[in-house]
Write a structure and sequence with these properties.
The structure is a homodimer. Chain A has helices spanning about 10-25, 35-45, 45-60, 80-95, 100-110, 115-120, 120-140, 145-160, 165-170, 175-180, 190-205, 210-230; strands at about 65, 70-75. By secondary structure, chain A is mostly helical. In chain A, a hairpin with a 5-residue loop joins strand 1 (about 65) and strand 2. Chain A binds a DNA duplex through helix 3.
DNA sequence: TACGGGATGATGGTCAGACCATTAGCACTA
DNA sequence: TAGTGCTAATGGTCTGACCATCATCCCGTA
């Protein structure tokens, strides 16, 4: 009968309104929101309140704020990059152990292999080989980093031509997670073995051999898992 | 010679400092940050700036702010619930089509079945059956919602006893995504067929029959995919 | 003595107005 | 024509004030 009145924070109401506008497409990436002083008048609130709303939107990755003339809040294009970064940020704060994440990785990265093998184009294969070459060059120069391995795995996911999947894998290999779990330590032997396996995987993809691809990826991830398990105290 | 000076936003510096404290464990969930007025003095900035920093931390899900006496900013326990909510929020804004997400779902929800079958306890099975019973009761009363189906799928993922995986599946079934993609419409026939398949899945789990579980889940998701494909214009 | 209710102080939420720093575009000058 | 300084718009920050909320304490009453 008497509906409960819930007085949200004013700034939160503004956030919700703008979020809705973006979701509905009334505001599209690249659009510029009115200036802070303008928004104050339209919403009938003080500038402080508007600014707090903009902070929240910015933290949520929905808008980007530039200063100076012709500055203001611009709706950002939701790139998969930005999203997987946010995802990785969330993951790094989650109450998850290293083995939890590794197991999830195995499910996803092995599960997508049928799609990868089915859909990989010649261009995909070329790209993958290029990444491996680069990795080997870096290895020879003693500059191998886990980033190169990550790039390979992400590119493999890209062979599905499904941005959702690519995003998932990308987030698993995000810089934040890497630095947390394995602290950049890239044992040289690790790199050699790793690139060998990477090359074997590409061969399997090129041959459209799902079983071989799964086998290679399984052992590859298994080995990685063992190594991360050592220093994973959390 | 003259090193470039980069003046970050002051509020951002504060955010980074507090984030660091949380990540380092110097601030643990449940801890209460000093009051706004107190933080002003410690950082030597105005209250507005401190408040903007707190807004960002709140939007990132790191702290929860309560008003009134004994109120303040409390470091939140990073629950999987909160995280999958954030994940779903990100997903709903991503440049992804419905079929992209459905395909990713299939990879994950089918890929985890070996783990589910291996690890499901009697309690898990009991819970699953309870959810099905509830769904059938709701169905009989004409109150079936997709939420009940979602609860089942999440609980299945819970059988892996891996919070990372549970979180992933949870986010796929988040309320935001649901409302976006299938607009709460739950065809009654859908519900009947769905609960039947759910029950078949539980049987397979109880019998530790991975192949059967995969078969059931595959057809189940396939049917769901078809239905969502109809109204998915994006 | 025990209980209920009002007073109290700490805390976050909001406001108004001011000033500073940054930046793109413009007009002016050499 | 090229360079340079001005200008106006915009975000960033500060100050001080007032309001709403809420746990706690204290006092009066039964």
């Amino acid at each position: 009968m008497f509906a409960p009145v819930s007085v949200d924070r004013v700034s939160q109401v503004i956030v919700d309104q703008i979020k809705l506008l973006i979701r509905d497409g009334r505001l599209t990436p690249g659009d510029r929101l009115p200036s802070e002083r303008d928004l104050c008048q339209r919403f009938g609130v003080s500038r402080v309140t508007v600014r707090e709303a903009l902070r929240v939107l910015e933290a949520s990755g929905l808008v980007e704020i530039r200063v100076g003339a012709r500055g203001g809040a611009f709706v950002t294009a939701p790139s998969t990059e930005r999203l997987s970064a946010g995802l990785a940020d969330l993951l790094s704060l989650a109450p998850l152990t290293g083995s939890n994440v590794t197991e999830a990785r195995k499910v996803v990265e092995i599960g997508i292999l049928p799609l990868v093998v089915e859909r990989a184009t010649e261009e995909d294969v070329t790209d993958l080989l290029a990444i491996i070459d680069e990795a080997e060059a870096a290895l020879a120069a003693g500059e191998y980093t886990m980033g190169l391995s990550a790039a390979f795995h992400v590119r493999v996911a890209g062979c599905t031509h499904n941005p959702a999947i690519e995003m998932l894998v990308h987030s698993f290999h995000g810089p934040i997670l890497m630095s947390l779990r394995q602290a950049q330590m890239a044992a040289p032997t690790m790199g050699h073995k790793g690139t060998e396996e990477h090359r074997a995987l590409v061969e399997a993809i090129k041959a459209h051999d799902v079983d071989a691809a799964v086998a290679v990826m399984s052992t590859h991830l298994e080995r990685t898992a063992e190594r991360t398990a050592e220093d994973a105290q959390d």
